[in-house]
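Re: the request from the purification team.
They wanted to know what the chain is likely to look like in 3D before they choose a buffer screen. I agreed to run a prediction and write the result into the notebook, where they can find it.
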Amino acid sequence: MGRVSQAQARANRRRVVEGASRLFREQGTGVSVADLMKAAGLTHGGFYKQFTSKEALIDEAVTHAFGELAEFHATTLEEHEGSHAEAQQSLIEGYLSVRHRDNPASGCPVAALATDMARDGGEREAHRTYTTGVQDFTQWLATDDEDGIARLCTMLGALLLARATKDSPLSEQVLSAARAALSPVPQPRV
């Protein structure tokens, strides 16, 4: 079997990072290297040609996931023609949806990776990336009246509870209650 070209090696690395980003959001960072490589359609032996360690892959995969989140925020803003308030409300509705609840692999890295980041501690690049990503998300959710932290905490908590109670009616009730709590309060007519 011949050596792969540099271009193919870069493509393989990108495939592993993208696949790991999805698997980590779906199953946590405890996924084995063998399973990560299998999901990418590559052999386990090729892992260490691409990465110095699993931790190095986790760092890259977390960075990739937060890059996707930033792109999603930008796209949402574009879709609402620059109206940040409308984009925020659209994001909140989507975040607190059954679709997002049921698809963690393509969902928010803040929710999906919170437990792993809490366990790993703050010494690693992935934790620093996660912290910066949370700060950026709260800033994106900020309004003239608040800094966005309470909004993100409400969204995150509701999503986690909805996922944990997925097979009961409580799950959708949690999502609905959080959406209502974060919806703009209609102003009375004068």
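For the purification team: The mean pLDDT is 92.
Please add any questions underneath this entry.
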